[in-house]
Design a protein that fits this description.
There is one protein chain. The protein has about 375 residues and is α/β, with parallel strands linked by helices. It has 2 domains: about 220 residues, Rossmann fold (3-Layer(aba) Sandwich), CATH 3.40.50; about 160 residues, Glycogen Phosphorylase B (Rossmann fold). About 40% of the residues lie in helices and about 15% in strands. It has 16 helices and 14 strands. The strands form 3 sheets. A 7-stranded parallel β-sheet has the order 4-2-1-5-6-7-8, with helices on both faces. Strands 10-9-12-13-14 form a 5-stranded parallel β-sheet, with helices on both faces. Helix 8 links the parallel strand 6 and strand 7. The longest helix has 23 residues. About 5% of the residues have low confidence.
Amino acid sequence: MQGNKKIGITTIWGSPVNYGQILQSYALSVVLRRMGFSPYIIRYTSSDVKNDDTILKKIKRVVSDKNSISKIIHRIVGINEKKVDRGFRLFTRKYLAYSEDVYNSYEDLCENCPQADVFITGSDQVWGEWGTLNRKKVFLLDFVPNSKPRIAYAASFARNALKDEEVDIFRNSLSHFKAIGVREQSGIELCKSLGVNHVKWTADPTVLLSRTDWIKQLKLEPINIGNNRKKSAVIYLLTNDERNKIVYKIIDYLEEKEYEVKYVSSARFIDKKAAYNPTIEMWLSDILNAELVITSSYHGMLFALNFNSPFITLVRDKSVDGQNSRIYSILNDLNLTHRIIDEFDKEVLDKIMKEPLNWNLVNNFLASQREEGLDFLKSALRDGAIN
């Protein structure tokens, strides 16, 4: 078939606490291996981003970002993520392949391009607004020789517009891609605004594996609702912000209803109330067996949908733009946007929790997206596309 043709992947990969970040890489790698390829993650550290992050820029961020003061306070009272061991390193060593070399900058990649037959960028927010132009060039695969195919799979902008200085770089770079798949519908419009029309919406890699796939691949154990156990609720936040106070109220509310609440945070400086630090397999099992999942995480929501676990998505505000676009892209199609909340309201929570979900509709939708995503990859990676 494809022999051992190598695929080099640029993605965001190094967090010791962000479950979705690791699992999207894992899922894409599993799928590519099933297709007969040998995928590996290119260890780009973004060190060139830090060098460009001057004190002046940091001050401007604090002044302009209303959440910065809150973040500073959390850093003072929080627990540094480096002190938390969730077994991520064991997981990645067991299941993922990485480049032998570490690349600290765009220049490093240009001077010593990783060896691969094809390159993929994605998934996750690889085209987000953060970082230098050189960082963006890395995730636009500008370091790749013209003789090698470039593919984007479920790449995310996490925004609706580019900065002026980015426009020409993105327009030129994207024109060299064999195939472009983006994770949000808004990404399609952004690409088309650049004159790049060979773009499709593609499902997040975690959706490419079915509920059954996840259970078999990682030996997860479904638990029956009986067995005299309490109802289980998983709360999973990505950041520390004003939503923490909402979560505290939700925890009290659920405990009054006799739920066993497991509160997990992937913030860099973790909320001390989120003392539960499960491994990746435990985290997935918790979602699989939960009667309720409340999360600010896109991937947390996706796993709840994929595992047929009732869910509520907690956002900072209900704007459909920016970070929220990825959530609305999915829930709009499922007519489930009413399960998005941005405040604590007992009546709203009660109504959502009592509402039965049409899992047949959800599963059919995910199956369709899974098939389209797999077809996209097969088409982009078929023999004729790889020299």
